[in-house]
Amino acid sequence: MELKLTKKQYRRLLDMVYIGNWILNSIRGNDRFQDYDEVESLLFAQAAAQGMPILSETCGREVVPSRAFVEGGIHEAILDYENTAFFEILAEELARRDMLEESSDPNSLEELASRIDDYIVEFEQHGIDHISFSE
Questions:
Q1: Alpha carbon distance 101, 79 (integer Å)
Q2: Distance between CA atoms of 77 and 84, rounded to whole angstroms?
Q3: Which of 126, 95, 124 is nearest to 112 (CA)?
Q4: pTM of the predicted model as reported, rounded to 2 decimal places
Q5: b/e per residue 93-116 (b: at least 16 CB within 10 A)
Q6: Residue 93: left if φ>0, alpha if ψ -120 to 50, beta else—which one?
Q7: Using H for helix, E for strand and C for coil, what is the string for 67-128?
Q8: Which has fewest Cβ within 10 Å: 2, 24, 40, 120?
Q9: How far apart are CA 132 and CA 10, in angstroms?
Q10: DSSP label of 45
Q11: Model confidence band, residue 104 (pLDDT cutoffs 50, 70, 90)
């Protein structure tokens, strides 16, 4: 297979491959999806030939993203995604809980969306500062 990319497109592809592999493997410990690691290694192995040798390094017999790549801001993008996902999931779970506690129609997507939006506004303004737990 041959794929023609500009240097900028190749650089973006490295970001996407790293982010995808991070999501799939970062929490798996020793039970990693090796085939994704292999694809990542293949793509990062081309960095030097594409004039970007600072983006990869060799670790044992494997080519991996370099420390410069990993510390170059890619984790801020991952963190933005994780924060957004966290607050969206939390908002939906709290909205569904509220609807159950208030005996609202659990099938009302309009009411669910409205409640989610209210929680999102709260989180945007105050983060989790106003969340409390009681029994």
A1: 32
A2: 11
A3: 95
A4: 0.80
A5: ebbeeebeeeeeeeeeeebbeebb
A6: alpha
A7: HHHHHHHHHHHHHHHHHHHHHHHHHHHHHHHHHHHCCCCCCCHHHHHHHHHHHHHHHHHHCC
A8: 2
A9: 46
A10: T
A11: confident
> Which residue's structure tokens are 């690691």?
37
| Residue 43 in tokens | 């793509």
pLDDT of 107 higher than 90: no
In this structure, the strands spanning 56-59 and 62-65 are antiparallel
State which amino acid sits at residue 77: A
Question: Which residue reads 């994704």 in tokens?
Answer: 36
Q: What residue type is 89 in one-letter code?
A: I
- Phi then psi for 73, rounded to 5 degrees? 115, -10
